[in-house]
Amino acid sequence: MTKITQNSILTSFTATTRLIIRKCNPKLLNVNNTPVKNVFDSSWETRLKELSATNFNYHPNKRNLKECRTIQLSEIATRNGNNWDLIGNQTIAACCLLIIPPGQFLLIGSGGLTLTNKGTITNNGNIINYGTITNNSGGTITNNGNIDNNSGTGGIYNNPGGTINNNGTIGNYIILSNIGFINIPLGGSIYNTATGSITNLSGGNIYINGGFINNASGATIVNNSGGLIYNSGGNITNNVGGNITNNVGGTIYIYAGGNITNKSSIANNSVIYNGGVACGTGNITGTGTINVAAVSGCPNPK
User: Fold this and answer.
1) pLDDT < 70 stretches in the chain
2) How many helices (H) and strands (E) does the chain have?
3) pLDDT for res 28
4) Is residue 90 within 8 Å of 76, Cβ to Cβ?
5) CA–CA gap between residue 274 and residue 294 (Å, rounded)
């Protein structure tokens, strides 16, 4: 989507468009067609919507053009070499983009610091979290690098309507809570360490599309009522001392070559489906135990 700035608007508008703008809000432009205001009245916004099809991509929910832009690391963090320390609590607004470049480290310090995302965060480098990362409705976090969710008072919270695309590696040492959508494609991985917990709550969807989750000794994966875990061609390894719990009302699908390698215990208090002819079979292998065996079944077509 085209980044909208005051200058880009002026250079892209035709003379006719500028005339209409002047009629809508004559105080917006001075005699040199340069802006004198950022705040638009309703008549200006209406005309802007009408003209958007031929002039530029307009964000109808954003009245201030400055809101839709790329956020620089230097705006939210202080630099020390390749390390960037978050300055207080920060929010990435809807339609804004934050990119962490390769080789750079964004550090979210302890003591209650929170990075809230309502827009897009693309991590091509490293995020080291000792505080809280909150991904709200409409927010997308795409991890192409590494995220360390370290011990502290917070964790990572993917709320309803939030999306995490994990193409890289997430090391989870504390809380990873999901009520949104988490996608782990081929090449993506989550290492749930001895102190880590992954909780999929009602409305949460975790898709393992060729990627994998490694559940270490002492770590827990809990799928609660209304939570869905889809393992399509991926792998969940439950190591000795690790625990997987599928609570009443939770559903886990293992299909299309997906596998759970169970070396410990699975408490299946609901239902685990291991695929079938229509979607390809999945398996639970290993020397561990499961109290209720998986049954045949495929997820509903999307």
Assistant:
1) 1-67, 302
2) 4, 33
3) 41
4) yes
5) 6
What SS3 state is found at 300? coil
- ∠ CA 172-123-176, nearest 5°, is 25
Tens digit of each residue's pLDDT (9 = 90 or more) over 113-123: 999 999 999 99
Q: Are strands 235-238 and 259-262 parallel, antiparallel or unpaired?
A: parallel
Residue 279 CB neighbours (<10 A): 17
Residue linked to tokens 């398996």: 283
Look up residue 115 and give its two tokens.
């990075």
Please state whether the predicted TM-score (pTM) of the whole model is above 0.90: no
3-state secondary structure 263-300: CCEEEECCEEECEECCCEECEEECCCEECCCCECECCC
Would you say how long the chain is, in residues? 302
- Decide: 215 and 237 in contact? Cβ < 8 Å: yes
- pLDDT at residue 302, rounded to an integer: 63
Asked whether 206 and 230 are in contact (CB, 8 A), the reply is: yes
Amino acid, res. 68: C
Helices 15-24 + 42-55 axis angle, to 10: 160
- C-beta of residue 286 within 8 angstroms of C-beta of residue 262: yes
Tokens linked to 299 = 């997820």
Q: How far is it, in rounded angstroms, from Cα 269 to Cα 184?
A: 25
* DSSP element (H, E) containing 149: strand 146-149
Instruction: Look at residues 107, 110, 92 and name the one whose alpha carbon lies nearest to residue 154.
Output: 110
Please answer whether residues 215 and 238 qualify as being in contact, where contact means their C-beta atoms are separated by less than 8 angstroms: yes
Q: pLDDT tens digits for 121-149?
A: 999 999 999 999 999 999 999 999 999 99
What is the Cβ-side half-sphere exposure of residue 22, based on CA atoms within 13 angstroms?
14
The number of CA neighbours under 13 Å toward the Cβ of 223 is 24
d(CA 221, CA 7): 51
Q: How distant is the alpha carbon of residue 114 from its chain centre?
A: 15
